[in-house]
From TrEMBL:
Gene3D superfamilies: Mitochondrial glycoprotein. It holds the Pfam family MAM33. PANTHER family: COMPLEMENT COMPONENT 1 (PTHR10826), OS01G0143800 PROTEIN (PTHR10826:SF15). This is Mitochondrial glycoprotein. InterPro entries: MAM33, MAM33_sf. Residues 124-167 are annotated as: Disordered. Residues 134-145, 152-162 have a biased composition (Acidic residues).
């Protein structure tokens, strides 16, 4: 398990809004992505984030990716993903980033932890999500005239959807005793939304099935209560500045885990 520590004063609260930016693909050819989450917009100061992981090039097949040559096809994918990582300049942890980052290889999430006054904050960050995944070309680059004519429109749609790239957060606020507050959030480039909020009671499991009242939907809460809960999370470090950094971090992790997964697959089929 790899641990990356970054701490800041407990009272640190960040209110920086980073505008979204859609990066052009580093490859000279515009190609589809194999994994939609990797087609995500990084910050304005970051390097291009589109990872060229597609195993098909329009109009021709890549060397070594022909039928029956699975190891060769996997090597192509691994090489292209590694080229992206080699060119990706991961931003250093910001000085005012309030969390400790716990990143375990092979896992699809990263854990953030910090203490705030008498509370313990734990945030589970998932891989990036992208609305509207890419459509794949025919394997031989063939298609009817209508499909071919949509290429430019598809590229524009992908660029627009890249702006919707987001990460999911599960935020748990706990104290030494008593219930916990559990938030489910979605962090976009320009806003953080609270999708759900629960009060989790610490109860002894006596085997009896229980159905506790979980409260109303978050959007049904009074507006002032909703605003107060957003402020509550900001004070504990769940800010746009922190989530935008974690968005870039998770895009890079997605590529790293993809390479590890593809390498395991290649090693298995070659045995």
């Amino acid at each position: 398990m790899a641990f990356v520590s970054a701490t800041a004063p407990a009272s640190a609260s960040i209110f920086i809004s980073v505008p979204s930016a859609v990066r052009a693909c580093a490859s000279p050819q515009s190609r589809r992505l194999l994994l939609a989450p990797l087609h995500a917009a990084k910050g304005a100061k970051s390097v291009p984030v589109e990872v060229v992981l597609d195993s098909k090039v329009k109009g021709k097949k890549k060397k070594g990716s022909g039928a029956g040559n699975l190891p060769g096809a996997l090597e192509v994918e691994i090489r292209e993903a590694q080229e992206y990582l080699d060119s990706d300049e991961q931003e250093p942890v910001p000085e005012n980033f309030p969390f400790e980052i716990l990143d375990e290889e092979g896992m699809s999430v990263v854990i953030l932890k910090r203490d705030f006054k008498d509370e313990k904050i734990e945030v589970t960050v998932s891989m990036p999500n992208l609305e509207g995944g890419p459509e794949f070309d025919d394997e031989d680059g063939e298609g009817d005239g209508e499909s071919a004519g949509k290429d430019n429109d598809d590229d524009e749609d992908e660029d627009e959807s890249a702006g919707e790239s987001s990460i999911s957060l599960k935020v748990v606020v706990s104290k030494a005793s008593g219930p916990k507050l559990e938030f489910t959030c979605t962090a976009f480039r320009e806003e953080i939304t609270i999708d759900d909020m629960l009060i989790v009671e610490n109860t002894n499991d006596d085997g009896e099935e229980k159905f506790p009242y979980e409260g109303p939907e978050f959007t049904e809460l009074p507006v002032n209560v909703q605003k107060g809960l957003f402020k509550y999370l900001e004070q504990r470090g769940v800010t746009l500045s922190a989530t935008n950094y974690m968005h870039d971090y998770m895009v890079t992790k997605q590529a790293q885990e993809y390479i590890r997964w593809m390498t395991k697959l290649k090693d298995f089929v070659k045995q």
